[in-house]
Each structure stands twice: as C-alpha cells, then as structure tokens.
Specification:
It contains one helix and six strands; from the N terminus they run E-E-E-E-H-E-E. By secondary structure, the protein is of the alpha+beta class. It has one domain. The chain is extended and about 55 Å long. The model has no long low-confidence stretch (mean pLDDT 87).
Length: 114
C-alpha cells in the first residue's frame, strides 16, 4: 500500500465516499479491485457491501489516502466461495463485538391535521 499522490488525476470508476475511486481488475471486476486515493473507511465500506453478514469497522488508525489493490481469492473448502486478500496489505478482517446504541420505536401515531 502506498500513499496516494493527491495531485494525480483519478481514473474513471466507482466514486468512493471519501472522493477516491475504485476500479475493477479483470472482466467486470471479478479478479479484484484497485483503490485510488482511498481511505481505510472506503475499504471497510466496500467490504461491508460485499460480505453483508455484519458491520465492518475501520480499526486501523490509518488516516491517509492510499493507492492499493485487493485481489479476489477462492475460499478453501467452500464451493464457489471467495474472499478478498486484505492480508497482503498487512490488514486482517476479524470478527468482534461492540456495544452500540439502538433506537427502539415502541409507539407511533398518525399526525393530526393542523
């Protein structure tokens, strides 16, 4: 992973929340993803969209923008399963627990006309 050159033009691709760009590797991106001027929050958000089985939080402490790629790799022992190789970036995806506030709505009424 290298620090992004913030003066370099970004390629066409999927705009990330931070303003960076993601492009696919291979046909329709099926081999992986290139991130350009992306943050670790962008990577966490992308992993959330892919894995759907729980929130993905950025706990890296990295605050800069980086250029990097994440390759898609088969998951051993699963039929047609895959994951993304974040370990090659020196990162881990770990399951964990955290306390979060929850909003509970226990009653609702139609508004009255004014």
């Amino acid at each position: 992973m290298k620090s992004a050159d913030l003066k370099a033009p970004l390629p066409d691709g999927v705009k990330l929340e931070s303003g960076g760009v993601m492009t696919g590797i291979g046909p329709r991106g099926q081999n992986g993803m290139n991130f350009h001027a992306a943050t670790m929050a962008d990577l966490a958000g992308t992993m959330l969209q892919i894995f759907f089985d729980g929130p993905v939080r950025d706990r890296t402490g990295l605050t800069g923008r980086y250029d990097f790629q994440v390759m898609r790799v088969p998951t051993p022992g699963e039929n047609h399963g895959f994951t993304y190789d974040v370990a090659s970036l020196g990162l881990n995806l770990k399951r964990g627990m955290e306390d979060r506030p929850i909003l509970v709505i226990d009653h609702i009424e139609k508004p009255t006309p004014n």
